[in-house]
Design goal:
This protein is of the alpha/beta class. The protein has helices spanning 19-29, 42-45, 48-55, 76-80, 91-99, 105-112, 125-129, 131-142, 168-179, 214-224, 252-262, 305-308, 325-335, 377-391, and strands spanning 6-11, 33-38, 83-89, 117-121, 146-147, 151-154, 160-164, 189-194, 199-200, 206-207, 229-234, 244-248, 268-271, 278-280, 299-301, 314-321, 340-345, 357-358, 360-364, 369-371, 375-376. The structure holds ligand PMT.
Length: 393
């Protein structure tokens, strides 16, 4: 997904420098060309050879001893970069950048580039919390730099605190988000629901379903990485939601209330959540004792969110079916007055609840039907967002 992109990865001298090898590797796996610039102190923690082996390109270690295609102009990397990522970034490098210094290859590149810059700090928690470091971070944020992390946890110095390099996934996710900022959905707001609702029976038990939230999450990421403002309404804590507004809900009723508010001014609503159609008509105040549990639970219908929320925006539903897929999906498309329904065969191998892949058929309002092969949920998300991007004015 980063094909054709050049990522300049700056590695500075902290114990977390070894984690930059994993970041470089994941960037390469995503299709990016990765140019590594190491500060002098980074080379005390990890060797240039490691990055050469991972990226297939020599790591730049000095302004004065370069070889290869970037040897003539010291700002070539600054021009080649689609994005500059510094991970890990020490307090010292952050301070140098905040002052606008150009005293080594990394600082010169950052000063000379027009590409967006992401900084992933890693340092001792006292250094991070120090007013000077915080002022430097604020200065760089004001200049448009994006920060990811640091996280709180056990640090190399043995203490607990905020200063640990953000997880590789969060760093990569930020790279995708920043690269997508000016994408074809920039300025658009997309509301996505994810996960299965839980309808309480008593304080302990609930009626629920097996939705993991992965499909909704994949859609949210696909929309975010094309520049959309994403409002993700989820019943589940999802791994990395950098750059999204996340609303946690539990029941269908709560989801209805939050969706109603979120769609105000939105361009699209995608309901990937598995919403309960019924809930217990009474919720017991205390845990129902085993010997007093009745085999009959009285249920009442929940509100149908998609049917209730109409408006001047694109509305997409999913139909989770175990039989008569197309027939049932067609009925829901019409009954809920949708622009698109994603018919999801939840019994096919590798499809539906909890899987990383999905097998879906797209049924459009105009009668067109598009059968997609088994794909990753991210690819299914991309296909739906592609269609949406073409239709959004
Ligand atoms: O979360 P995963 O593990 O990745 O699994 C993905 C998924 C199988 C949950 C997803 O792909 C999917 O099919 N979601 C829709 C599940 C569902 O509730 O389908 P349905 O046919 O019951 O509902 C049709 C549509 O109406 C859905 O968009 C649903 O969100 C919506 N609905 C349903 C009931 C209700 N009370 N209000 C609604 O808005």
């Amino acid at each position: 997904m980063l094909e054709g992109k050049t990522v300049v990865l700056g590695v500075t001298g902290g114990i977390a420098a070894y984690k930059a090898a994993d970041i470089a590797s994941k960037l390469v796996q995503s299709g990016a060309t990765v140019e590594v610039i190491m500060t002098e102190s980074a080379q005390k923690f990890i060797t240039p050879l490691t990055f050469r082996a991972i990226t297939g390109r020599p790591a730049v270690t000095s302004m004065w001893e370069m070889t290869g295609e970037f040897s003539i102009e010291h700002i070539s990397l600054a021009e080649a970069a689609d994005i500059v990522l510094i991970a890990p970034a020490t307090a010292n490098t952050i301070a140098r950048l905040a002052c606008g210094l150009a005293d080594d290859m990394l600082a010169s590149t950052v000063l000379a580039t027009r590409a967006p810059v992401i900084i992933a700090p890693a340092m001792n928690c006292n250094m991070y919390e120090n007013t000077v470091t915080q002022e430097n971070i604020q200065k760089l944020e004001c200049r448009g730099f994006t920060f990811v992390g640091p996280e709180t946890g056990r640090l190399a110095c043995g203490t607990e605190g905020r200063g640990r390099l953000a997880a590789t996934e969060a760093i990569l996710s930020t790279v995708h988000m920043v690269l997508g900022r000016n994408g074809d959905l920039a300025g658009k707001t997309i509301v996505v629901t994810a996960g299965g609702t839980r309808e309480p029976v008593d304080p302990v038990r609930y009626i629920g379903n097996r939705s993991s939230g992965k499909m909704g999450y994949a859609l949210a990421l696909a929309a975010r990485d094309r520049g959309a403002t994403v409002k993700l309404i989820s019943t589940i804590d999802l791994p990395d939601t950098t750059g999204m507004d996340v609303f946690r809900v539990g029941t269908a009723g709560e989801m209805l209330t939050v969706v109603k508010e979120a769609v105000k001014g939105a361009d699209a609503l995608i309901m990937a959540a598995a919403v309960a159609d019924f809930r217990p008509s009474q919720v017991a105040a205390d845990k129902i004792k085993k010997d007093s549990i009745s085999p009959y639970l009285k249920l009442e219908p929940t509100a149908d969110i998609l049917s209730e929320i109409q408006g001047d925006f694109i509305r997409v539903g999913f139909a989770a079916e175990s039989r008569d897929l197309i027939e049932n999906a067609k009925k829901k498309l019409a009954a809920k007055n949708l622009d698109l329904i994603v018919a999801n065969d939840v019994t096919a191998t590798g499809s539906g609840f909890g899987a990383d892949t999905n097998k879906v058929t797209l049924l459009f309002k105009d009668g067109r039907i598009e059968d997609l092969p088994l794909m990753s949920k991210r690819e299914v998300g991309e296909a739906i967002i592609d269609w949406m991007a073409n239709g959004i004015e």
